[in-house]
Amino acid sequence: MLIPTLAQSAPRTSVRLDIQFPKPGSEYRPSRCGSFIAGRATTLSEDRLAVALVIDTSYSTLETTEQDLDGDGEIGVPETRRVGQAFHETLSDLDDSVLAAEIGAARKILQRLNPEQTRVSLVRFAGPSAGGRERRGDHPERRPAETLLPPTHDFASIENALNALIARRPYGGTHMAAGIREAMGGLQLADSEDDGDHAERIVLFTDGFPTLPFGPAQEAANVRATIDQAKLAAENATTIDVFAVGPEALGRPLAAFAVTRETGGQLLPVRDPADLLMAAAQFSLVGLRSLQVRNTTSGAPASILHLHADGYWFGLIPLAPGSNEIEVRVEGNDGESAQRSFMIVSNEDAAAAAIPPQWVDERNSLLALCLRKLREARFALEAERVERTRKELLLRMEAERRRAASRAEAQRKELEIDVDSERMGR
């Protein structure tokens, strides 16, 4: 079974691959779903991560995705509501907004991280509209960026903060520089409190381009301010990945493109906000392009394989009677790869395998998925459709990335901003 992830060019690195369960030579009792296997792959030298999830909460994120994201049978539509003496433009179902798509994608990434190895913080950014003229419902007294939760291993608290964020009405413009600056402050806090090395990563979601701190009329200054923050992040060895969501973000992509190039991160263009959850489900924080696991004795691939954003992977592998050679192969974004093989013995008389406590939930979720797969005759057809849709999304995103590079260069010339053309992907 092959799992590709969203890839982007990066400096050549070495790929580390560990098999963490089972021990070579372990005996398994035969199972229709296959035997549980687990490990980790990464291109990072550090084992631990500090990740800042940075959410754009500007006014435009109130727009509808035109999809029923929450599955309640209603698609949110724009409407005007009266609050006291004022009228506010809003959405009939906020759970179908661009903001809801961003929050859902952040939650998807969180679910694919190991809380024992990763600390996560949550930041939102927006900012007052230009020239002091606030659009209806804006709150000029609010800070342009805010840390909702500092770095923590308590992922339940991050989940709760994400759930609460949808109720906070978006406002104002897009102060991307403030979002990066605020996230950097939290990561530096994690660095001061940590007792070992970790890689620092900012994952930023935006549906626009910088309109602040100087207002929309000074776009070049706003872009420069954002790039300056990215340079500071690069000096602190912090990588920034940007999910650029929707036509506005992809129409003026210079800042997002430059931020990722300055820091060695990934630009992840998603034209349709409704595709954001699927894109986040394939996102790798540790520089991986693909993972493949197969039984070389029988020729069977893993029946189910999950690759998490932090490089941890879990799967179920079918076994033939007797000894089985299992091969694991992983490829990094730069084409470097690593491969490991180990033996598992299928034995009818073997005792039930003792799964490490931290992986019991993961094993159970794989088994539940397998049982659904065995029960549902149409599962294969649905999986084929999802795979086709996913591949089409990756192709669209790659085409958007190329177009974004061209538009970014044109925008750079228009704004007379000095950005290294090679680092801009030209």
Give a verbal description of the structure.
With 426 residues, the protein is α/β, with parallel strands linked by helices. The protein has 2 domains: 133 residues, Immunoglobulin-like; 261 residues, 3-Layer(aba) Sandwich (Rossmann fold), CATH 3.40.50.410. Helix content is 31%, strand content 27%. It is built from 9 helices and 17 strands. The strands form 4 sheets. Strands 9-8-5-10-11-12 form a 6-stranded mixed β-sheet, with helices on both faces. Helix 1 runs antiparallel to helix 2 and helix 4 packs parallel to helix 6. The two termini are 35 Å apart. The N terminus is likely disordered.
What would a concise description of this structure say?
The protein has 426 residues and is of the alpha/beta class. It has helices at 98-111, 155-165, 176-193, 219-235, 246-251, 254-263, 276-280, 360-375, 379-415; strands spanning 2-4, 16-21, 26-28, 35-42, 48-56, 78-83, 86-91, 118-125, 145-152, 198-206, 238-245, 267-270, 288-295, 304-307, 312-317, 322-332, 337-346.
